[in-house]
Here is the input.
Amino acid sequence: MNGQRVLVVDDEPQILRALQATLRGAGYTVDSAATAEEALTAAAAHPPEAVILDLVLPDGNGKDVCRELRTWSEAPVIVLSAVGEEREKIAALDAGADDYVTKPFSVEELLARLRAVMRRSAAAPEPVIEVGEMLIDVADRIVTVGGKRVKLSPHEFDLLRVLAQNRGKLLTHRTLLREVWGPSYQVEAHYLHVYISHLRRKIEPDPSSPRYLLTEPGAGYRLVAPSSV
Amino acid sequence: MRRLANGVLASAVAVAIVTAAIELFKPYVPVLSLGVLYIFAVLPIAVGYGLGFAIVVSVASMLAFNWFHLPPVHTFTLADSENWFALVVYLATAIVVSDLAARSRRRAAAAEQRERESALLAELATELLRGRELEEELPAIAGRAAQVLGVDSAEISLGTAHRPPRDQSPYPLEVAGRKVGAIYTPADPNVAAQRRFLPALAALLAVAVDRDRLEKEALAAEDLRRSDLVKTALLRAVSHDLRTPLTGIRTAVGALQSPTLHLSDVDRAELLDTIDVDSERLTRLVGDLLDLSRLEAGSAAPEPELWSLDDLVRDAVDGLGARDRVEIVGESPLVNVDPGQIRRVLANLVENALKYSPPEAVVVVRVGATRKEAIVRVVDQGPGLPDTELELVFEPFYRRDERSGAGLGLAIARGFAAANGGRVWAESRPQQGATFALALPVVEVPVELAT
Here is the structure.
């Protein structure tokens, strides 16, 4: 198949083994590492096109690996987290991870997430972004849903644009606040909740059960095309 | 009584001395003016024995003056009526002065008493604040209180349920209507001291009682907090230890079932092996958790049999499939233990030693005995244990480092050893490897088995 290179980092040998075999079966070329140091060395030796990263490593945590990796690599990172590690998970996402799956995860879910983050990182900037029936014209700041024009305030538009440019990807509260309102608003999470609910009323066919703008409880938001992953 | 006798004697002596002194001065001074010298008899008596004695001495002095010195001598009649007046003035003066003296004496005595009381209270406050156990200090406090109250002995009891000592009257110790306890004395204490001192003592004891109680409550709260911490750690550990093998299994099964993956034979074998290893791990973990909860619930009743301990060691090592990495030396007397549980103890100790030894290193198991105990020492060639960890390693879920499993093996070993009347402990000198030892009580060999 495509032979794209994926680096898998986990200190549990059995999980590492199972992931390696699985990813090879899905056509990827797989490198593996069991510690943070090994991970950074391996990534430097053979730059991966995506990284699957366990949050808790014997010599450090996934957040630090993410931050270090981000200084020179754009490769998308999927974090493997466990219940009880929510804070570490958010920290890793804030440090540049692209998505997460919770252990124990289904193989199909992991592979779908992996495909999604790799597709995004390969995509070039688009002047008009299409998400389901929604079209977002970034240059002219025009949004239509099912062909009907939707009027958005400047902040609402920016919020939708950031989510759309990262469609499918989980964006943390902190990331969204920084991108839309600027660095000094990073802790004003209630701004975000209010704007998200405004946005849903304008773009969702049924705002009480959102299909475009999904909440990841405790983590952030994700814009998806309805009925896609 | 003795005080009365002393007073009478002292009074007589004082009057006699002054009377004699006047006799000496009489040739030089008009005798009437010498009557004032009796003040020197009255004053000391007033100070030493109080107003009553002083009045008696005053009257006695005037009578003696009249009898011995005022003409006509050796009669109580007076030649000159002026002398009557002088005598009455002297008497009045003596009585007024002695009243003043007696008052100041009483004040001094009261001040002294108060000083004693406040000194004791201050000392008690200091001692109680130093934080010793109040109950232990009570006899000493009672002894000191007895001194202040002017009684021979005293006993203090706290709380409201008392068994009053025989022949002693209780005095309640109360602060603002709250009964702190009671003090028992064989005789009635000085009333003023009782009124002043007991409330202060009660207040101090109340503070000390409260402090003791608060301290105990704080300790209990700390225990609770610690057990909460332990529970949290336990939950985290269990969830991690259960989830990790589950993740391996689920990933492998998911991959094997996926219609979209193209697995090579090698990868298929890898995935099957992952499932095998991880399900084995889960099985053991669940077994360990069950054993541990059984031990903690006290329901791991051993079924003792007579065994030679070195045989159990060999069985345990064989069970681990580690015969070529373990050297067993020595022999031991018989022990009366549950063979399954003790094999488990030994297997856990040996497995632990192997885990922390370099890959090719041999673990030595020494079997021996003292007069009372059969002892097995499992000596590894690992990094050893710092003193601080010698006990910690037996705590459930304690992990030394990434080589540790769920951290249950040693806790289970200790639990089963204790259930069989034995004990397990660790000894170590850092950089020289660790030794884990099992001691079990030696059994008298039954006659029919002795050769």
Summary: Residues 228-297 of chain B form a domain with the Helix Hairpins fold (CATH 1.10.287.130).
